[in-house]
Amino acid sequence: MRTGTIIAETSDLTIGYKTSGRTNPLLEHLTLTARRGELVALIGRNGTGKSTLLRTMVALQQPLSGIVRISGNDIFTSDRSLLPKVVSFASTEPFAVHNIKVREVVALGRFPYTNWIGTLTSADELSVNEALQATGLLPLSDRNIDAISDGEKQRVLIARSLAQDTELLIMDEPTAYLDLPSRYSIVSLLKKLTREKGKCVIYSTHDLDTAINEADKIWLMSEKGVAEGAPEDLMLSRTIARAFESPLLSFSQTSGSFSFIRKSRGSVTLDATGSLRKLTERALHRCGYKTGQDSAIRIIAVETDGRMEWTLLFENRTECYNSIYELVGHLPVED
Predict the structure, then answer these.
(1) At what angle do helices 180-196 and 150-163 cross, to 10 degrees?
(2) Cβ-proximal residues to 61 (8 Å cutoff; 6+ apart), any chain
(3) How far is 58 from 228, CA to CA, in rounded Å?
(4) Is the dihedral of CA 281, 287, 288, 289 positive or negative?
(5) What phi and psi, each to the nearest 5 degrees, are found at residue 201?
(6) Do 127 and 111 touch, CB atoms closer than 8 A?
(7) How many Å from the N-terminal Cα to the C-terminal Cα in the chain?
(8) In angstroms, what is the C-alpha Rg of the chain?
(9) Is residue 179 within 8 Å of residue 206, measured between CB atoms?
(10) Is 43 helix (H, G, I), strand (E, B) or coil?
C-alpha cells in the first residue's frame, strides 16, 4: 500500500518529566515518522511512556528536548492557536460530559472554527453530519450521551475528532475496556478513515492482535527506545518477541501471536484433516502435548455426515469421544 507524505515526525525527541527542579527522562533520541493515509499503532509494556509520547506530540506536555513537527511545522515554536486545526487528540479519560446529545458532543470538535460565542455555521453543521455518517452514529445523534454503550462513546470521540477536520488524529487507547467485537469495530473504523479520507491515525493500544493484523506501521516502545516498521518487519527481526516474551510466554514469528510455555506431557500421533485437525492439534498443544509421528498415543479424528468423532488408541485401549473436551480429559501421560 502506498502512503502519502509525512504528516507527523519527531527528531531527536526526549520525553519525560521535570519534578522539583529535576529532569526525569523516560526515553531519549526518538526519531519517528507517520504519513498521510497510514494507521500507526503504538504498543509497549506498561510504564514505557506511550501516553507521555502521545501527549507530547499534541503539545499537552513539553518535551525535555528535541522537535515534534506536524505538517512540517515545529509545534512548540509555531503559533499554538493553529494546532487544533492540524491535529486532534482523544484520550481514555472518563467521559467528562453528561446530559448532552451525541450530536452536541460531536459538534464540540468544531471549536477551532466557530466564532467567539460558539455558533455553528452551515459548513460546521455539514462537518458534524459527515462525521456522524462516517462513524455510523447518525441514528444515535439525538440520543443522550449517557444512554449509549462504551463502544458507541468511543465512536463519538472519533466522530468529534473527525468534525475537527484535521489530517492527523492521535488517540490514547481508543479500544480500552471494550469487548472483542467492539475493539475490532473501532480499529476497522480507524483504518477506514486512513483509506477513504486520507487521514493519518496514531493510536496506542495493549491489543497486540489487532495492532499486528491491522496497522500499517507499528511504533514499539521499550526501555531502549521506539522501533518502527511494518508489523511483519518487527516480527522477522524478533523485536516484538524480545519486547514481550517472558519465562511464561513465547511468540510465534509466523502467526504473530503469543502463547504460554507449557510443560510437555508427551507426544501424540494425530490422523485428521482440515479444520478438524487444526482445532484438535490446537487443543493438544494447549494441554501440553506435541504432535508428531510414531508416538505410543494415537488419535484418529473423523467427521461423518456432520458428526465428529475422536478415537484414542493407547496400548490395548481403544476409546471413542464425541468432543475435544472429552478427548483431552482422557489422554494418558507418556513416561
Answers:
(1) 10
(2) 15, 52, 55
(3) 20
(4) negative
(5) -120, 125
(6) no
(7) 52
(8) 25
(9) no
(10) strand
**Residue 334 corresponds to which cell in the numbers above?**
507418556
* Alpha helix stretches (DSSP H) within the chain: 50-57, 102-107, 122-134, 150-163, 180-196, 208-214, 231-236, 239-244, 274-286, 324-328
Average pLDDT by stretches of 10, the chain with 335 residues? 83 91 90 96 93 95 95 92 91 77 94 78 92 92 93 90 93 88 89 93 94 95 93 93 84 78 88 95 92 89 93 92 94 71
Alpha-carbon distances, residue 176 vs 145, 172, 309 (angstroms): 18, 9, 40
Question: Please, are residues 175 and 210 in contact by the beta-carbon 8 Å criterion?
Answer: yes
Closest CA to 199 of 32, 40, 36: 36
Query: Read out DSSP for 45-112?
Result: -TTSSHHHHHHHHTTSS--SEEEEEETTEETTTS-GGGGGGTEEEE--SPP---S-BHHHHHHGGGTT
**φ and ψ at residue 205, rounded to 5 degrees:** -160, 155
Q: Which residues pair with 6 in a beta bridge?
A: 35
